[in-house]
Amino acid sequence: EDKVVQSPLSLVVHEGDTVTLNCSYEVTNFRSLLWYKQEKKAPTFLFMLTSSGIEKKSGRLSSILDKKELFSILNITATQTGDSAVYLCAVLRNNDMRFGAGTRLTVKP
Amino acid sequence: NAGVTQTPKFQVLKTGQSMTLQCAQDMNHNSMYWYRQDPGMGLRLIYYSASEGTTDKGEVPNGYNVSRLNKREFSLRLESAAPSQTSVYFCASSELLADGYTFGSGTRLTVV
Description:
heterodimer; A: mainly beta; six-stranded mixed beta sheet; five-stranded antiparallel beta sheet; 11 strands; B: mainly beta; four-stranded antiparallel beta sheet
């Protein structure tokens, strides 16, 4: 059965810290891996990764995919309280996406 | 541009009652999806519709039915609600799956 596993499940840091969120997967018909940020309502798109070893960056956030070892990481540098959210990893298959359980990040002032 | 609109936003049902969750998108997307989100479980796919006129089961379809009424609308029906169906329900749509989903704002359903 296809699985997407995120770790840690929750994380508490202080402003200015750097965090690394992990996502491992075992999925048939893998097409790409996506990261979403979810605050109070609907998930919002962060990154889509299709190729191994190519880092995607957006401001203080970056992500990379390893298709050989079947995992991805999401890095957030110089964290801010506004980064507090649940971060979801999802794997795109042929017809749909399989999501992980998410990592709840809390950034304290 | 509204994107994906879900109604209602909140609902409380008694066990055994029925209801329909509505979803409409105005982006002319072919594919639409219903997910439920429970604490510690992430989002799990209930049903999806790859195109108008087709529907398929996802990971957790039991207790639900769907209708793809037209290209814009995809509804989710609970015929006899159970407390285990207490959850937040998200509708999503996509044109090309490779571009990811656009999500609605969710429906918080409580079954007592």
